[in-house]
Amino acid sequence: MSIHMTTRPMSRILIVENEDATRHALKTLLERHAYRVEEAASLDAAQALAPQTFDLVICDLRLAGEDGTQMLALSAPTPVLVMTDHASLRKAVVALKEGAVDCITKPLDDDEVVTTVARVSGSPGPARDASPPGVPSGMIGECAAMQCVYERIRKTAPADVTVLVQGESGTGKELVARALHRQSRRAKAPLICVNCAAIPETLIESELFGHEKGAFTGANSARTGLVEAADGGTLFLDEIGELPLDAQARLLRVLQEGEIRRIGSVETRYVDVRLIAATHRDLQSLSRSGEFRLDLYYRLNVMQIDLPPLRERDDDILAIAKILLERACARHARPGLRLSRAARRDILGYAWPGNVRELENALERGVILAEGHLIHPDDLGLPSERASRATPPSAEPPHSSDDEASLDDDLSLEDYFQHFVLEHQAQMSETELAQKLGISRKCLWERRQRLGIPRKKQPRRMA
Ligand SMILES: Nc1ncnc2c1ncn2[C@@H]1O[C@H](COP(=O)(O)OP(=O)(O)OP(=O)(O)O)[C@@H](O)[C@H]1O
C-alpha cells in the first residue's frame, strides 16, 4: 500500500459519488472545514473536471454501474481516498494495493472523514477537535460510565493486546475500535473493519483468510484475505458471535500462532495483527450452547470494554443530542434548529433500544421534518408506545444557561403562537394564519391540537 503525503495545505477536493445525499453531506462537511470542494456523480463528470488538477479526490468504489477504482488512473498523480461500505471491503483492499491513500467506510463518520482528509493531505486538520480533553475524537459523552470507557481505551490502546468490546447495537463499539487503533503504535498501519454478520456464512472464511486459485467452485484466482490485509495493523471483527465454527478455528490459529493458511493452500503465512472483537451477544452463554468456542472466547477476552446503553447515560443524552443535532443541521443546511422543550422531554423519557444510532436517526428525521426553528416531538417520530424508563421524564437534569435560554425561547415561541392565533383567527383564514406564522397548514393544525386551541367551526356566511 502506498501512502501519498504532501506538505502543502489542502485547497481543492473533488468528490466522486453517485448518491446525491452522501455527496452533498460530504461537500457541506468539508466546506465547513475550509476546503474548496467540487463534485461529480460519475466517472465521466469527474473526468470533465480534470481530476489530476485537484489536491485530493474522494471517490466511492461502487458508482452506479462503474468501477470507482478507475479514478486511481484517471486522477494520477492526485491522491485518491476511497469510500466503501462493508459489502465492498474486498474492493477497498484492492484499491489500497493499487495506490489509494486510504479508505473510509460508510456510513461516514464526520470526525473520521475530517481527520483522514487532513492526514492524507498533510493539511493542518480540523480547526478544532470538538472532543473535550480525555474524550477520544469522534466520541461524545462525559457521564461516569463513559469516563471509565475512555480510561480503559487510554490504558489498553498502547498495550497491543486483544480487546473484546461489548455493548448493545448502536452504543459505539466501532468508535471504540477506531479510538484503540488511533491511540496504538499501529495507528499508521491499516485498520480493517469487518462486520461478520454482514458477510454470508459461505463466504466469510475466504473473505477473512483468502483462498488459492481453484480452492472451490468459482475461485478463479488466488485472493488475499482481510486478515492478511490488516498485517501490521488492526483487524476489527464486529458481531464476532456470528462467526461460523470453522472460521473460529482458523481465527484461533491466528491469535495463538500468528499463522494463517488460505483456503486450499498448504502453505502457512505469518501475520502480525491486533484483533479487536465486538459483540452484543453473551459469548459465554453462546459457548455453553456450543455456538462459540470457549478457547477462542478466552483468547479474545484479554481486555474487555463494556459500553453502557444510552438509557443508562442520563447525564449524557441531551448533550449527545445537542452535538448530533448540530451535525445533522450542517448536513442538511438547516442551521440553528433546536429541540423544543417537549422534544427534549420525550428524548429523556424514551428507552432508546437502538442507542446512539437511533438517536442520530431520530434527530436527522427531526431536522428534515421541522418547519420552524424548533423540532417538536412529532418531527422526531419516536414510537408512540414508549418503553418506560426508570427515570421519569420530569428528571431532566439541571439546565445549562444555554438550555435555559432555549427553554425560554421555546416557551415564548409557543406563547407567541397561541397569542397570535387567538388574536387573529377571527379575521384570518387558516391559510393566511399559517402564512403569517411561516408554517404549513398541516403544522398549524397539529399545533392547535397540541396546544388545545382547535379551530372552531365558523358559521357559514350567507351570500
Ligand atoms: N459515544 C458516541 N459518540 C458519538 N457518536 C456515537 C457514540 N456512540 C455511537 N455513536 C454513533 O452511533 C452510530 C453507531 O455507532 P457504532 O457503529 O460504533 O455502534 P456499534 O455498537 O458498533 O453498533 P452495531 O453493533 O450495530 O454495529 C454511529 O453513527 C456512531 O457515530
Give a summary of the structure in a few sentences.
This protein has 463 residues and is of the alpha/beta class. The chain is built from 19 helices and 16 strands. It binds adenosine-5'-triphosphate.
Helical coverage, percent range: 40-55%
Over all CA atoms, what is the radius of gyration?
Answer: 26 Å
Annotated CATH homologous superfamily of the largest domain: P-loop containing nucleotide triphosphate hydrolases
Number of strands: 16
Taken as a percent bin, the fraction of beta residues is 5-15%
The number of distinct structural domains comes to 4
Could you describe the largest sheet, including whether it forms a barrel?
Answer: 5 strands, parallel
CATH topology of the largest domain: Rossmann fold
What CATH architecture label of the largest domain applies?
3-Layer(aba) Sandwich
**Uncertain segments of ≥5 residues (pLDDT<50)?**
1-10, 124-129, 390-412, 459-463
Provide a count of the helices: 19
Bound molecules: adenosine-5'-triphosphate
